[in-house]
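Limitations

Structures in this collection are predictions, not experimental determinations, and the ligand pose is part of the prediction. Treat each record accordingly. The example that follows, with S-adenosylmethionine as the small molecule, is included so readers can see exactly what is and is not provided: the inputs are given verbatim, and the output is the predicted complex.
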Amino acid sequence: MNHTESWFVDLLHKEGVSLTDQQLQQFDLYYQLLVEWNEKMNLTGITEREAVYEKHFYDSVSLSFFLDLNKAIRFADIGSGAGFPSIPLKICFPHLEVTMVDSLNKRLHFLKHVIEALGLQQMNCVHGRAEDMARLKEHRDQYDVVTARAVARLNILNELCLPFVRIGGKFAAMKGADPASEVNEAQNSLIELKADVQNVHHLTLPHEQSDRHIVIVNKTGATPKKYPRKAGLPGKQPIV
Ligand code: SAM
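Predicted complex:
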């Protein structure tokens, strides 16, 4: 085990996430593929091993510190990009049935390669805009937990993500240093989309010491038929 893997295993263990050698090998292979494919396509600005393990892997898994994923089955990641947070979470919680939605097909091409190389099961890659995919019966009001990291502000995300969540399920928005203004700005979108903020959790990345927040949103009722609006509109004319 190298130095990076050693702190990664120890810190996750302290948070109740224990990794086997096989899971650690899956993280290593994911790291190698990310760096290799990043030469051909834009996947991440971070490539140094220690930084990837902290800012992508640890950061992704941190969602599970605040939401018990052992109780979830159907899990969706909207705007999954190079696989964050869904691939690290799937490695740690292999029972999850994961759907990754992204409008950029070449990123999904990378994800399919990762899924095969790591031998991950029950992974569904969906190419399309969240606004369109959330209208399909197989996705609407279906998921126990939906997440998004680095995709949009919270009022926009509520419209993109809450339609996928089952009634009583959770949307976990992974946010940076200061989510307070986004949470304020999102009040009307929560009312419109039948949801409320359950909690805003804070964490600090272990080495870099930068702040992160995870906003947990409860879906209390079915998404009204008019949401999400036409593709592009949630971003252009956010609910305010
Ligand atoms: N979640 C990843 C992460 O944290 O590294 C990727 C973040 S990247 C900045 C945003 C991703 O969201 C891109 O891959 C983009 O194609 C996707 N995206 C943005 N808006 C979307 C939409 N309306 N529907 C589906 N995917 C979307």
